[in-house]
Design a protein that fits this description.
Blueprint lengths: L30 E5 L15 H6 L1 H7 L3 E4 L3 E2 L11 E5 L6 H13 L3 E6 L9 H9 L11 E2 L22 E5 L5 E6 L14 H16 L4 E4 L36 H14 L5 E4 L6 H5 L9 E2 L2 H4 L5 H15 L7 E3 L8 H4 L3 H14 L3 E5 L20 H4 L52 H4 L6 H14 L10 E2 L6 E7 L5 E7 L5 E2 L9 E5 L8 E2 L3 E6 L1
Parallel strand pairs: 1-2, 1-13, 2-5, 5-9, 9-10, 10-11, 12-13
Antiparallel strand pairs: 3-4, 6-8, 7-8, 14-15, 15-16, 16-20, 17-19, 18-20
Helix pairs in contact: 5-6, 11-14
This protein binds alpha-D-glucopyranose.
């Protein structure tokens, strides 16, 4: 199944295949834009986004002012979980293009000064992966079965699952196989859909394969990896029963026998050595759902990965005290390991923050400007720069989230971010006011777009200073030119009335900026407490100046 790049002329690890004039430590303050390839741009009009579509839109991303682009999986996949079920890690799924398209995309991105981060899915493969298919054929006891978690069932006839673990997508985390002769056979573990068997990371061949995969994509020129379910690779020895209900929460309150086991760190230490063999700081970003920020920090110790998503921030409600607490805890947890904090409000697994925070566009814009004022690296999910809301009224028959389909499979599938309604944030984004699929492509759209999508399009918003797109462009431009934003690891809190967050950010060159956020739904007079002396840089909403911050508004001043 693996495709080959016949005309690939670049030697392994060629340093010219990265962004020219690379800045050291670029990732410490980078703004990274998540492209969900199915829904970003459709180059061939078949209703499904693809790599040529992304490639054509790279100038838009460069113009937006982001530093890097993270692409969700585009590998050969039966798409049981929208590509997070990989059948061949070295091939592009034909619906997205081929390796030449990936190569061209990476080159063009680098020419535009953008870095490319690809998604690596090491916790599980597709059940259509050659290894799994061969393991099924070869039967119990075969060495290939040891690359996954096959076990005999419990009960007199092995008719019960080997333990009580539940799938994140609902129902038991085990599926029974049939033996080559058709009789009921062993069970295999899948923390996600049955089409996503978990790999056994105690098996040396699995470890070797993923080190080789890292090199394959690094040789293709990628600048880093977002590591899917980075907290799940190692399972507790003996696969002990959980013995408790409510396992489904991804962001738990404890270390689980299948999540956040200490053994994962050894894997990332070995990966870090490979990343460091390549020039220009190639990075690893952990998707690690952990009980607290301190556990998250373990993934980004100096000899492990570079960044980890800060889901604790994402999960914080729009409340000044709660936000201040999570900002402090995040920064305090990362400081001892010397890693940058990351900030993220939206991604392909959660309700878009415009809808989730419950305050409409004003609040979403205020939240975005707060995020972009914090020290560290920020993640933007495609379409949030357009102020897209969650699409909440998709017809059931259009939905593809496997958790939605498994809602009746023995669990209610209600868990953090994986409750089965993830299609609502995956609707293809609008580029033009009119036209087939609002410029997503020349054809339709794999998920229906709302009728008013055109008003939110890139075309409609470009050049309108009051638009969310122009707010993001302006914010990212300020962030690039103002060293007090993004850099460092501290915020200096300023006195502020209830419901208002105010802090100063200082840059190494002595410059400073002040950010104030009114999280309440009423205007607040901050004149007595906060007297920013400096020049107004940007406001998320109508800010007439003076001491009154309108409801749900963030303002930046230079000092
Ligand atoms: C991660 C991905 C999610 C996927 C799951 C299983 O949480 O972000 O989309 O369903 O892993 O791979």
């Amino acid at each position: 199944m693996t495709q080959h790049l016949a005309d690939r002329t670049q030697p392994t690890g060629d340093p010219t295949r990265t962004v020219a004039g690379s800045q050291p430590d670029w990732w410490r303050h980078a703004v990274i834009y998540q492209v969900y390839p199915r829904s970003f741009a459709d180059g061939n009009g078949d209703g499904m986004g693809d790599l040529p579509g992304v490639r054509r839109r790279l100038p838009y991303l460069a113009g937006l002012g982001v530093d890097a682009v993270w692409l969700s999986p585009f590998y050969a996949s039966p798409q049981a979980d929208a590509g997070y079920d990989v059948a061949d890690y070295r091939a592009i799924d034909p619906m997205f293009g081929d390796l030449h398209d990936a190569d061209a995309l990476i080159r063009d991105a680098h020419d535009l000064g953008l870095r490319i981060i690809v998604d690596l899915v090491p916790n599980h493969s597709s059940d259509q992966h050659e290894w799994f298919q061969r393991a099924l054929r070869q039967g119990p006891g075969s060495p290939l079965r040891d690359r996954y978690h096959f076990r005999p069932g419990k009960g007199p006839n092995g008719e019960l699952p080997p333990n009580d673990w539940e799938s994140i997508f609902g129902g038991p985390a085990w599926t029974r196989t049939a033996n080559p002769d058709g009789t009921p056979g062993e069970w295999y573990l899948h923390l996600f859909a049955p089409q996503q068997p978990d790999l056994n990371w105690d098996n040396q061949a699995v470890r070797d394969e993923f080190r080789s995969l890292l090199r394959f994509w690094l040789d293709m020129g990628v600048d880093g990896f977002r590591i899917d379910v980075a907290h799940g690779l190692v399972k507790a020895a003996g696969l002990p029963d959980m013995g408790a209900a409510g396992q489904l929460k991804l962001l738990g309150t404890d270390v689980l026998p299948f999540f956040d086991q200490d053994g994962v760190h050894e894997i990332y230490r070995s990966w870090r050595k490979i990343l460091d063999e390549y020039p220009h700081q190639r990075i690893g970003v952990a998707e690690a759902w952990t009980p607290n920020e301190g556990r998250t920090a373990l993934y980004v110790r100096p000899d492990e990965l570079h960044q980890a998503f800060n889901f604790h921030y994402l999960n914080t409600p729009w409340n000044a005290a709660a936000l201040r607490r999570v900002i402090d805890t995040s920064l305090d947890s990362m400081r001892p390991v010397g890693a940058p904090t990351t900030w993220v409000l939206s991604n392909h697994d959660v309700v878009r923050h415009l809808t989730r925070l419950g305050g409409g566009l004003d609040r979403a814009r205020a939240a975005s400007l707060l995020m972009l004022a914090l020290p560290g690296s920020a993640y933007i999910y495609q379409g949030e720069e357009l102020g897209l809301p969650e699409v909440t009224d998709l017809p059931d028959e259009a939905r593809q989230d496997p958790a939605f389909c498994r809602r009746g499979a023995g669990g209610d599938a209600s868990s953090d971010g994986q409750e089965g309604l993830r299609d609502g944030c995956r609707v293809p984004i609008p580029w033009t006011a009119q036209g087939a699929s609002f410029g997503f492509g020349d054809g339709g759209s794999w998920l229906p777009q709302p009728a008013n999508w055109g008003k939110l399009s890139v075309e409609e918003q470009t050049g309108d200073p009051s638009s969310t797109l122009e707010l993001y462009r302006a914010a990212l431009a300020v962030r690039r030119t103002h060293p007090a934003l993004g850099a460092g690891d501290a915020v200096e809190w300023l006195p502020a009335p209830d419901g208002v967050l105010a802090f100063r950010r200082r840059a190494a060159d002595g410059s400073a900026m002040v950010c104030a956020v009114n999280t309440t739904d009423m205007a607040v007079d901050v004149a007595g407490v906060l007297t920013p002396a400096g020049r107004l840089l940007l406001a998320s909403g109508r800010y007439p100046g003076g001491g009154v911050l309108p409801a749900d508004t963030t303002v930046w001043w230079a000092e």
